[in-house]
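Service request form, structural biology core

Requester: graduate student, group of Dr. S.
Request type: structure prediction, single chain
Budget code: on file
Notes: please return the result as structure tokens.

Sequence provided:
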Amino acid sequence: GTVGATVGIATPQSDTTIKPQVSFVDFPKVKEHELEEVADWLSSYHSPRTDFSVFARFDHRNTYDSELASAVFNPLFPNFPTTPETGRVSVSETRTLFDFSPVYQYHVSPRLNIGVSGTYENADYTATIANTFVPYDYSLARTFVNWALGPRSGLTVAVFGSRYSATDGSAVSDAHGATVGFDMNWSKTLSSSVELLGQQTDNTIVK
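Core staff response, request fulfilled:
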């Protein structure tokens, strides 16, 4: 069974939504049962010149539920970063995942916005089989410029850098690059976008 709630707090300039959920899962054939906890937090602040939002997620579940890809978007944050589904499942092991994603945007003019965004992700496992699951830290920093070319089109230029680091020191991956994107709203129901990406990645593997 699952018990959850959604709590909303609103002011003239800000909105906060908190969504905790607790589930009891039982696998009678293998005599395993446990509690799973998931909590989402989304806050946003708006002023005439600035927009700021932050999304955080705590996810503690067994790998049977957490390591298989879900077909459902997160209702609070549809652009939530891809979670690390490995496809390896076990009801006797758990994954604890923490995500933190802030976005800040400043309106220079009605047509020009500049901003920064970031993502931090930490995954930890209780796996008892070596190399089955690898705990890790991942961070991404991005700065961007949005330019409204017209009422229906816009251009976005961004540069970014990221790092993946296995907690056991077995692997480190550093990446940096830039993107150029173009968006077009053809009508109220039809839109399209094109993005060009250039990226360099340096991988270090410790055998």
